[in-house]
Amino acid sequence: MYWSLVGGFTGLTAAREIMRDTPEKKVMVVDANEVGFGASGRNGGFSMTLFGMEPETTVMRWGKSKTQEAQNYMQQAVAYVHDLVEKENLDSDYEHTGMWRVAYSESQEKRLKKTYDLLTSLAKPNSYQFYDQSKVREKLNAPQIRAAIFEPETGILDPCKHVRAIKQLAEKAGAKIYENTAVVDIRKGGDGTIVKTNQSTINAKKLILATNAWSHTLAGPKKIRNRQRPAWTYQIVSEPLTKEEWQTLGWQDRMSIEDNRQLVHYLRITKCGRITIGGGDIAYEYGKEMDKWHDPKIWQALEDHFHWLFPTLKHKKVDYKWGGAVSANFDMVPEIGFIGDENIIYSSGCIGHGVSLTQLNGRLIADLISGIDSDISKFWIVNRKALPMPPGNFLAYLGVKTLTGILKGVDWYEERGLKSRVPSPH
User: Fold this and answer.
1) Are 239 and 316 in contact (CB under 8 A)?
2) N or C: which end of the chain has fewer CB within 10 A?
């Protein structure tokens, strides 16, 4: 019997793909809550190619060859999601509209051009285009934006609808899915792993720990608990725009938008005619409480940024707001690894860029489970020598405060010349 924890993009995709590879197997998925409760249902809805933090950071840490391999993997990941939606006719509100990465200040524009040069050296031809301010203003009425990198082969979707559509695909393939079933213990037993839930005890031959930001809360193997810590990011959704407001805004291409600040904002249009925006500042979890679902200061800063970015929409109100946790590990690069005798596989460290990444990771994990020697199963994040998180809370607290302070300082410095500054939490 094969088990997958949790019922997010990675676990559900792996379950479906394992059943498609080997229909005679028994595959079960358990989630402590309902499918979509975690990051797979609460993210910004960007099916994008960003790997880790920034390409410059990945090159510095891992070299250009591995960064290029990661870029290729991420382009495969976006194509995997796009093909899945089209072939299975998924009700995901998917739109293959491309993405802008934008700069607000002269300093950010200079850095954006360097990023563009790096990305074009890593990716296949015509993967990116650079827009100056005149080109930007042809396509969007957002006077704060000076320049943009346009990446045409990316998409947007409703993440909650998408993850529940994948749940249906996994069940159709033969996987059994149990929601609101919390795991209370994991331990070695016989020729497999004993998984104890709040309702039963099961002997699993293979176990997939796709718990992402919740991994440090798991009972069981110490290795999975020290791989990552959760960082909390927040989103708001505007009230619907009128036809006249959309015409004034000029956002006809419906591309998603992410700025190239250190503490980024991300925006997209919803199918129901709203704008959702997230990011900016973050919150960090030091213990196991996992209760930072609300942050009124960050929500207000997001609303202020929305009005700052689109002056013609200053009168628009916010209808919805929420928060969710992403998985951040010490070296800021995703990780797939084995525990012990390779009967347990874990995945973590998706850094908030996981809509496409985690789904292809599910296919990769299925290859590892089924013993398929594929191109993606050789991807260098598999069983890499990752740096564990430092023990205790004090070092983590000190590191987070230092890092976020530096990032905020860089943003302040690059935006110091703007007539009106990017809003931040008070």
Assistant:
1) yes
2) C
